[in-house]
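> example.struct
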C-alpha cells in the first residue's frame, strides 16, 4: 500500500495547503498547526515514492524515474515562481496549489481502483536478484531452498 500512503499524504498535504489562508485568519497558533500538519504529511511522501518505484519500476529504469521526478519538482518550483507573484491575492496560491493536489489525489485514487489485484510485487528483475543473494544478503544454499 505505498501508493495509498502516498495518496493519503498528498491529500492531507493539499488540504493543509488549501486551508492555510483560513488558518491564518484564525490566528498564529492555527496557522502553525496547519504547517506542522503539512510537514507531517510531506514526510511520508518521499519514502512512499521510493517504495512505489521499487514495486513498480524495473531496477534498470529506476534512476531515470527518479531523475524525471526531481526534474518535475524543479519545473514545479520554476512554475510557482513565475505564477505566484502575478496572483492578485496572496491566498490564491494556496487555493490553487491545494486544489491541484486534491485533483491529483482523485486521479491517483481512480488509478488505484483500476489496478488489478496482485500488483505491488517487487519488479521482476529485483525478485530475481533477491533470489540470487537469498533475500538476506547471503548467497543461496546448495540444498535447493534458494
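> example.seq
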Amino acid at each position: 500500500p505505498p501508493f495509498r500512503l502516498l495518496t493519503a499524504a498528498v491529500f492531507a498535504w493539499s488540504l493543509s495547503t488549501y486551508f492555510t489562508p483560513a488558518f491564518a485568519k484564525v490566528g498564529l497558533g492555527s496557522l502553525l498547526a496547519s504547517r506542522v500538519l503539512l510537514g507531517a504529511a510531506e514526510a511520508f511522501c518521499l519514502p512512499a515514492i521510493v517504495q512505489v518505484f521499487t514495486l513498480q519500476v524495473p531496477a534498470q529504469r529506476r534512476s531515470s524515474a527518479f531523475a524525471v521526478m526531481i526534474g518535475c519538482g524543479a519545473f514545479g518550483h520554476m512554475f510557482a515562481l513565475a505564477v505566484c507573484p502575478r496572483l492578485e491575492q496572496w491566498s490564491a496560491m494556496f487555493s490553487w496549489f491545494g486544489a491541484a493536489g486534491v485533483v491529483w489525489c482523485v486521479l491517483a485514487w481512480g488509478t488505484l481502483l483500476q489496478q488489478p489485484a496482485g500488483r505491488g510485487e517487487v519488479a521482476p528483475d529485483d525478485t530475481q536478484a533477491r533470489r540470487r543473494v537469498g533475500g538476506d544478503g547471503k548467497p543461496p544454499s546448495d540444498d535447493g531452498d534458494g
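> remarks
Residues 28-56 form the longest helix (29 residues).
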